[in-house]
Design brief:
Blueprint lengths: L2 H17 L4 H8 L3 H8 L7 H10 L4 H4 L2 H4 L3 H11 L3 H19 L2
Helix pairs in contact: 2-3, 2-4
Length: about 110
């Protein structure tokens, strides 16, 4: 993402968090990320991994398209289908699926 896109993303996160009357600490805790990491994202800094984005978006009870337009997430429709499926899962299943996907990708990169 460009710096401008990161700033827009951060602003969207902050606005949604404020709509829900949540603290940065609460979102970070629920999303299992450090509070300083979350604050950097709201400030338009950082480059979060997809699994981190998914967790944050779930905590904010929204979807990735609300905070990052689809065209900035991925150009491939198949990847977007995976992201949407992950977002539809409960937290435990989502974490398990993310670990499985990452393990599979790691195994493929070793070839």
């Amino acid at each position: 993402m460009t710096d401008e896109e990161k700033n827009i993303f951060g602003k969207q996160l902050r606005e949604r968090r404020n709509e829900l009357n949540l603290t940065t600490q609460k979102v970070a805790l629920d999303a299992e990320v450090g509070e300083s990491t979350y604050k950097r994202l709201e400030a338009g800094d950082g480059n979060p991994r997809l699994d981190t984005l998914v967790k944050i978006v779930k905590c904010l009870k929204t979807d990735l398209n609300s905070v990052v337009p689809q065209e900035h997430l991925c150009k491939d429709a198949g990847i977007w289908q995976i992201v949407r499926k992950l977002l539809s899962m409960d937290k435990k299943k989502m974490n398990k699926a993310i670990k499985a996907i990452l393990a599979m990708l790691d195994a493929m990169s070793d070839d």
